[in-house]
């Protein structure tokens, strides 16, 4: 079946294939040689290889067959209330380990992968504490999350912590070129740079965008197609908004209102607008040093609005407020 | 059948024809090309009334042909076994041999269980062997921006683990409310609202199909009123036709009751700033809420009405307060607190301004 998306097709099978996370890879490679693994905590932004690394460890320790009985993966699509932690995790951890499989280290412990652990309640995490203590001889825990602060300290302190970094453009380019070669996709000049720019260190997003663009261009990927499928706000829209905001006293509020409602009607994601607006404001090299305080104020407004949007505030009101506030900052003498 | 349903209605019986008469957002054109065969998880986002659902149906039609239009609508209770208790939720599903559509946010607080149990089960099971089947099944999830954080978390691994057997097509109007890790797993397709010209074109086509003459000046006012929302334009046209047929050149687009009412609220705020007036406005706000007008819509409409009428000098401050109180409204439990606080704050802004100008 052709139906496997490239992100899955090119998911690293071995820890050594995980790109850019050298610290993690080196430590884990050594640990895998001796089959002596500490409890682990992986954290970092989306699409940087956390889940892939955990699954690769499991495969390398036990092989594809034994994995089924020795590894338990629980993620946010599984119910993980206190109840489940008590019952399911306990019965998995407490069960006896079977005979090893030939050709794999098969250490005498099991592996429990708790993916997306930041979505577990504090209570459930507390319940895990006991379980972890009780069964640490026969089970290794791998916690995975985006925000390490959401994992309670008593759990985090028992683990070796690894931060997964957003992928560097050059590293990302390497993976992308590898996939292009395998899939017979050609890249137009500049396409690689565009792809890195629009995916912000998230390799999964880069691969998904690449696959869509490749389908569109029948195997040829250009910068324009990438921008098209990646949800970027066109440069002239952002620069228009920035100019109106900075025009200070000269701008009537109605003009700002028109620009903002256009952004909303065009469906541009408000957070994307903020992000590009920030880049635009920061990239103005001709601005005199005297305008720095204004810029600082503008950046603060942008940050506050981004937070508001994340907790569900209205896009129109937030964007309008950003425009109004920046305009006010620049209008002030 | 309402005209709006004829044009934008979800059972895509007329989707092909509609796309000819209606608009196709330019951002969508490339996507129809992607759809020839396999496609990744997809998130359609864009403002209300832009035609996201219409495009989802067009996508499915492009992939599966007319078969997707033979749909069954079913509302039934689903039993969910939780470790500690049994839960029953009622869900409406729309399905064809090729796809299944549901609105998981409808079950409110229990949306997490719908994602963890029902959606995961659907994604996991292999598709039936209908011919023409592309080897995976399609789940259409509406209003994913209304899903709780926990429910969205629950989609993440499901989207990866079962991606060979199942594709999700999701629809959201506020894409900021869809969490980053979910967005990172989809192709995100922006659906722009139709432009004024496109709205005009659709109105003209509908008028022709309904044998109605559309006076140009009236049509222009209607387009203006609709603010690029096709649904709004079509509903309004139909109401106007009922009121007065044939349509008159000087006819005003009939605004909805609640919009007129919010207009009055704005006027009250600007007319007089006093505790008594605040009390009066409070009554009106309660009435709007009692009529199930969503609080964020009340807030946004009220701000827009205020901006139409107030002096430029105090607009920035008013919008700033609106942004603050609307956010609190999202996070808090009782909307009336925040709506009223905003009204009080606005009254004080207006009053101070009047005093500073020497009017009061
Ligand atoms: N460091 C990496 N090296 C190689 N491939 C990677 C790397 N990071 C991400 N990928 C690619 O992106 C896909 C998703 O990665 P993965 O599932 O490991 O992300 P994650 O860090 O768990 O993200 P999330 O926080 O969203 O769950 C993989 O299937 C792989 O194709
Ligand atoms: Mg992951």
UniProtKB/TrEMBL annotation, chain A:
Transmembrane segments: none annotated. Gene3D superfamilies: 1.10.8.60, 1.20.272.10, P-loop containing nucleotide triphosphate hydrolases. Its main location: nucleus. One of its GO terms (cellular component) is DNA replication factor C complex. SUPFAM superfamilies: P-loop containing nucleoside triphosphate hydrolases (SSF52540), post-AAA+ oligomerization domain-like (SSF48019). GO terms for biological process: DNA repair; DNA-templated DNA replication. Residues 36-170 form the AAA+ ATPase domain. GO terms for molecular function: ATP binding; ATP hydrolysis activity; DNA binding; DNA clamp loader activity. InterPro entries: AAA+_ATPase, ATPase_AAA_core, DNA_pol3_clamp-load_cplx_C, DNA_Rep/Repair_Clamp_Loader, P-loop_NTPase, Rep_factorC_C, RFC_lid. NCBIfam families: PRK00440.1 (NF001679). Heterotetramer of subunits RFC2, RFC3, RFC4 and RFC5 that can form a complex with RFC1. This is AAA+ ATPase domain-containing protein. It comes from Gonium pectorale (Green alga).
From TrEMBL, chain B:
The keyword Nucleus applies. It holds the Pfam family RFC_C. GO terms for cellular component: DNA replication factor C complex; nucleus. SUPFAM superfamilies: P-loop containing nucleoside triphosphate hydrolases, post-AAA+ oligomerization domain-like. Residues 38-197 form the AAA+ ATPase domain. Belongs to the activator 1 small subunits family. This is AAA+ ATPase domain-containing protein. It comes from Gonium pectorale. The lineage of its organism: Eukaryota, Viridiplantae, Chlorophyta, core chlorophytes, Chlorophyceae.
């Amino acid at each position: 079946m052709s139906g496997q998306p490239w992100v899955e097709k090119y998911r690293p099978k071995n820890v050594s294939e995980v790109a850019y996370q050298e610290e993690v890879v080196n430590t884990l490679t050594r640990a895998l040689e001796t089959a002596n693994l500490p409890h682990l905590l992986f954290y970092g932004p989306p699409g940087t290889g956390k889940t892939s690394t955990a699954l690769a460890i499991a495969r390398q320790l036990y092989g594809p067959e034994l994995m089924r009985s020795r590894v338990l993966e629980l993620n946010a699509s599984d119910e993980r209330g206190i109840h489940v932690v008590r019952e399911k995790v306990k019965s998995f951890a407490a069960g006896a380990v079977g005979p090893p499989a030939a050709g794999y280290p098969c250490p005498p412990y099991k592996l429990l992968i708790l993916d997306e652990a930041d979505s577990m309640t504090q209570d459930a995490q507390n319940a895990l504490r006991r379980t972890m203590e009780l069964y640490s001889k026969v089970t290794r825990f791998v916690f995975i999350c985006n925000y390490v602060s959401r994992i309670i300290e008593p759990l985090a302190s028992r683990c070796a912590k690894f931060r997964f970094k957003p992928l560097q453009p050059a590293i990302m380019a390497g993976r992308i070129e590898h996939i292009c070669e395998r899939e017979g996709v050609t890249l137009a000049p500049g396409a690689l740079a565009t792809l890195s720019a629009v995916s912000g260190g998230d390799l999964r997003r880069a691969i998904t965008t690449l696959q869509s663009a490749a389908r569109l261009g029948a195997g040829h990927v250009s910068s324009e197609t990438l921008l098209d499928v990646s949800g970027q706000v066109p440069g002239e829209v952002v620069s228009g908004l920035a100019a109106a905001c900075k025009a200070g006293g000269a701008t009537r509020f109605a003009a700002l209102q028109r620009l903002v409602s256009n952004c909303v009607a065009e469906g541009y994601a408000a957070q994307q607008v903020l992000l590009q607006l920030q880049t635009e404001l920061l990239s103005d090299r001709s601005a005199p040093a005297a305008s720095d305080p204004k810029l600082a104020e503008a950046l603060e407004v942008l940050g506050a609005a981004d937070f508001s949007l994340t907790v569900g505030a209205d896009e129109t009101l937030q964007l309008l407020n950003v425009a109004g506030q920046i305009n006010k900052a620049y209008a002030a003498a | 059948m309402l005209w709006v349903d004829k044009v934008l209605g979800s059972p895509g019986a007329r989707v092909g024809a509609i796309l000819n008469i209606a608009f196709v957002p330019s951002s969508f054109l490339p996507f129809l090309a992607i759809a020839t065969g396999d496609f990744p998880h997809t998130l359609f986002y864009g403002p209300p009334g832009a035609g996201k659902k219409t495009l989802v149906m067009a996508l499915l039609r492009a992939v599966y042909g007319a078969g997707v239009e033979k749909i069954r609508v079913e509302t039934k209770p689903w039993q969910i076994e939780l470790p500690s208790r049994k839960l029953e939720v009622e869900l409406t599903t729309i399905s064809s041999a090729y796809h299944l559509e549901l609105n998981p946010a409808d079950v409110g607080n229990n949306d997490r269980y719908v994602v963890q149990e029902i959606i995961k089960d659907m994604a996991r099971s292999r598709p039936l062997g209908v011919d023409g089947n592309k080897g995976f099944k399609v789940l259409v999830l509406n209003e994913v921006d209304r899903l709780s954080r926990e429910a969205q978390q629950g989609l993440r691994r499901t989207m990866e683990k079962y991606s060979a057997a199942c594709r999700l097509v999701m629809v959201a109007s506020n894409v900021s409310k869809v969490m980053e890790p979910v967005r990172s797993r989809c192709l995100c397709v922006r659906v722009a609202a139709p432009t004024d010209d496109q709205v005009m074109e659709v109105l003209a086509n509908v008028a022709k199909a309904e044998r109605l003459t559309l006076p140009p000046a009236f049509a222009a006012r209607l387009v203006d009123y609709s603010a690029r929302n096709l649904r709004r334009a079509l509903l309004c046209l139909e109401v106007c036709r009922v009121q007065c047929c044939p349509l008159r050149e000087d006819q005003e687009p009939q605004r909805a009751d609640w919009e007129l009412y919010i207009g009055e609220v704005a006027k009250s705020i600007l007319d007089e700033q006093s505790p008594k007036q605040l009390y009066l406005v409070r009554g009106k706000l309660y009435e709007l809420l009692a009529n199930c007008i969503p609080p964020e819509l009340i807030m946004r409409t009220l701000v827009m009405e205020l901006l139409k009428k107030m002096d430029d000098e105090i607009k920035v401050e008013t919008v700033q307060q609106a942004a603050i109180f609307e956010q609190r409204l999202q996070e808090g439990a009782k909307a009336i607190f925040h709506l009223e606080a905003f009204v009080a704050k606005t009254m004080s802004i207006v009053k101070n301004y009047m005093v500073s100008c020497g009017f009061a």
